[in-house]
Amino acid sequence: MSSDRVTLEVSERGVEQLGSRRVRRLRKEGLVPGVLYGKGHTRAIVVNERSLRTALTGPSGLHAIVDVVIEGQTTPHHAVLKDFQRHPIRGTLTHVDFHEVRLDRPIQATVSLELVGESPGSKQGGIVQLVSREVQLEALPTGIPEHVELDISALEVGITLRIEDLAPIEGVTFLDDPQLVLATCTIPRGLTELEEGAVEGEGEEGAEGAEGEAAEASDEDAPAAED
Known about the structure:
Blueprint lengths: L4 E8 L7 H9 L2 E8 L2 E8 H7 L9 E6 L6 E10 L6 E8 L6 E10 L3 H4 L3 E4 L3 E6 L7 E5 L8 E3 L10 E2 L6 E6 L2 H33 L6
Parallel strand pairs: 1-4, 2-6, 7-10
Antiparallel strand pairs: 1-3, 2-3, 4-5, 5-6, 7-9, 8-13, 9-12, 11-13
């Protein structure tokens, strides 16, 4: 759960730190530009990239409640990460958006889905496919789970698991359609065709065997030719 609290010290960006050229200079200095959105205000901020990564790699991951403390102030701004950008090659964070939240009011979030358990269908040659990798939910900021688990221990071949099959989580409301497909277990098409061909082959062999036996019986019953 995102009940873990992380303190993140940031600085407000002045006019002299705005613009693409100045932003590139900040990034070269190991700083990440961002925005803190709040009720009735928007603040351009800058934060140390290493401190930011540390704050977002704790137990609650990207769903952690971050106490954003602006340089020169003492009152923290409770916020959640709403968006971020990474460098396409280095993978470093290049921009972040934080939204202030009230801890006593529910918020909506997108959370990743993880499969737990072992599908009986997979033991029979079936392939388990995760159709939806994320779910939409609503909960208090401190109650947003890091991920949602989908139990596949009863997933047989031909069975489909949906939103309605998720185990209830106290304080969490799933917002997606209850019929939204999450996971399936199916037999690969090539294997199915191979099995069908084997069955047809057995049927043909059985028919030929029966015809052969009938022919032999007919020969035995026929009267012997006289000399």
